[in-house]
């Protein structure tokens, strides 16, 4: 059977195919490894914000720790967004929490810190008796969704893929 295959393929075609396979293998072997965008943003956040540390990575989410927040994470490449910053704190957040969320969002989304701090504070302060425990708003091309329970308040800041 091998003799039949060799008879069908001319010598020049066999050498061309084997050369192409070797060249393709060499191209993939020498390709440099690139760090994920999430990892790069997490490193920038850890370097720029005092007290912020990168905990671990699971799937496309990088978990962070900071004394002002109970939970802090950075997610990348969702179905409708490119980057998501999630932070959870006390039901009545302290100014340290607002500052942390504002500076982290400013670095992650390349927006000014004043704008992100103002937007996150507005979102978290709008929750109450009249508007309920879940508020969604858009501020400076950022989508903010704030929720609260009896003991905690959280904010998720995303930028849609279109922006």
Brief summary of the model shown:
The protein is an alpha+beta fold and about 160 residues long. Helix content is about 40%, strand content about 30%.
Largest sheet: 7 strands, antiparallel
Read across the widest sheet, the strand sequence of neighbours is: 1-2-3-4-7-6-5
As a percent range, the share of strand residues is 25-35%
- Tell me the distance between the termini: 59 Å
Helix content: 40-55%
Number of separate helices:
5
| Estimated structural class | alpha+beta
Q: If you had to describe this structure to a student in words, what would you say it looks like?
A:
β5 (134-139) and β6 (142-148) form a beta hairpin. The radius of gyration is 25 Å and the shape is globular. The chain has helices spanning 2-8, 11-29, 37-48, 95-109, 113-126, and strands at 53-58, 61-66, 69-76, 81-90, 134-139, 142-148, 152-160. It has 5 helices and 7 strands, in the order αααββββααβββ. α4 (95-109) crosses α5 (113-126). The longest helix is centred in the N-terminal third of the chain and has 19 residues, at 11-29. Helix content is 41%, strand content 32%. Strands 1-2-3-4-7-6-5 form a 7-stranded antiparallel sheet, with helices on one face. It is an alpha+beta fold and 163 residues long.
């Amino acid at each position: 059977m091998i003799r039949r295959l060799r008879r069908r393929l001319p010598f020049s075609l066999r050498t061309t195919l084997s050369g192409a396979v070797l060249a393709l293998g060499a191209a993939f072997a020498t390709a440099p490894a690139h760090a994920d965008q999430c990892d790069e943003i997490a490193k920038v956040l850890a370097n720029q914000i005092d007290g912020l540390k990168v905990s671990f990575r699971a799937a496309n989410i990088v978990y962070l720790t900071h004394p002002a927040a109970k939970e802090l994470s950075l997610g990348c490449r969702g179905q409708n967004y490119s980057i998501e910053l999630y932070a959870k704190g006390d039901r009545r957040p302290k100014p340290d929490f607002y500052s942390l969320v504002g500076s982290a969002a400013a670095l992650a989304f390349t927006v000014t810190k004043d704008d992100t701090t103002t937007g996150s504070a507005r979102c978290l302060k709008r929750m109450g008796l009249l508007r309920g425990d879940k508020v969604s708003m858009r501020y400076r091309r950022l989508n903010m969704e704030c929720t609260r329970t009896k003991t905690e308040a959280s904010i998720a800041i995303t930028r849609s893929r279109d922006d």
